């Protein structure tokens, strides 16, 4: 049976968190919940997927009331998929940490920089990161991602956190040549399949007392490259959700990834970009860890 270290998963968050996840082959993931010993329990038959209306307050309350031990255990060694399915929009925030803006030679923005990643780039937390042979500037970005649970349109910052279902880890994989050279489009530099690992799980919003007090980190081949804290965001989570909602309606299942601290490959001198065989490990306090191998093909 695939087990997670329960002690590690509970660090810095209060009590026994509700951790929702999805497991199984790509395109055939099943809904699950983390059990008391770090084991995966199968929610099939309770909900169809971790998506859409399942992310509503009433649905999450129902799932909180379930004893995971009454559910069947997931088969051993199942792949862990992204913790949310059927994602309508994948929105990202650029240059949301001052130290990252500085390392890229960019000004601190006056308002949040919005761009999108194709939803087809979403992958599981431990799936390979696949770079095309034409890519020479693959890069990494550990980020806090949030998942919308309730429709949000023109909402105030004071209401914003109530529209969030939960939080998870994201690696905003990028290819800097595609992103900045030629026509310089961020969408095409961040959207190939496997360039949006999410998970391993979704921790419900009520179990994250303050999303602006979370440590996040990333290692490349065992060497720490990123160490940051969400307290250093230029625009905090509530500001981002409110701002986005004034430019587009957010729907249940939308994912917003909130920017990265310094330490990305393009910020090194000289730059250090991803190569075949590299191993990425990254995580956020209380939200779990990811591990990806880099493949070129």
Overview of the structural elements:
The protein is an alpha+beta fold and 297 residues long. It folds into two domains: 6-80, no CATH class; 86-296, Fumarylacetoacetate hydrolase, domain 2 (Alpha-Beta Complex), CATH 3.90.850.10. It has six helices and 19 strands. Strands 1, 2, 3, 4, 5, 6, 10, 11, 14 and 17 form a ten-stranded mixed β-sheet that branches. Strands 8-19-18-15-16 form a five-stranded mixed β-sheet, with no helix packed on it. A hairpin with a 5-residue loop joins strand 2 and strand 3. The longest helix is centred in the last third of the chain and has 9 residues, at 237-245. It is globular. Residues 9-15 have low confidence and may be disordered.
Strand percentage lies at 25-35%
CATH class of the largest domain: Alpha Beta
Instruction: Please tally the β strands and state the result.
Output: 19
Continuous helix count:
6
| Annotated CATH homologous superfamily of the largest domain | Fumarylacetoacetase-like, C-terminal domain
Overall pLDDT: 94
Tell me the number of structural domains. 2
Low-pLDDT residue intervals, each spanning 5 or more residues: 9-15
* C-alpha geometry: globular
Topology order in helix (H) and strand (E) letters: HEEEHEEHEEEEEHEEHEEEEHEEE
**Biggest sheet features:** 10 strands, mixed
* Class per helix and strand makeup: alpha+beta
**CATH fold assignment of the largest domain:** Fumarylacetoacetate hydrolase, domain 2
Termini, distance in Å? 32 Å
Radius of gyration: 18 Å
CATH architecture of the largest domain: Alpha-Beta Complex
Helix content: 10-25%
